[in-house]
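User: Before I run my own analysis I want an independent prediction to cross-check against. Here's the chain; please return only the structure tokens and, at the end, one sentence I can use as a sanity check.
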Amino acid sequence: MNFEPTIEPGVALAGIAIGAAPEQVLESFSRHQPVLLPDRIVFPAAGITAGYDRHGVYSVMCNTRLGIVYRGKLWAGMTVADVLATSSRQTAWGGAVVVDGILGIGLPLPAGYDDFERLDDFLPSHFVFPQLCVFRL
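Assistant: Structure tokens:
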């Protein structure tokens, strides 16, 4: 199976479903040479990582290699300036920047920056969010 260029907040990214069993992900995408770690499956060539626990996949992250954009608002490789220009409201939720109240998708924040009043108060406008994440609600 190939990675799909689709995003469904809180549901799936690139064809990897939130809640899927790790074994299912490994089987479906085995041709992409996944690396299985105790808490995640990494697809190095595709720039995709699926985090999992005993309940299944809880997050799927991609970097710029996948090249997908969600509603013109979110993509891997965005700068803080991009986020501010494409959204009207930014909040911190579960360690990610969530825009315009769209839960289940966001831009992972750097460690130690999981809360903010204004996004540009602590990150410079040229700061790049290297990954996009779809996560379990």
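Sanity check: The chain has two helices and 15 strands.
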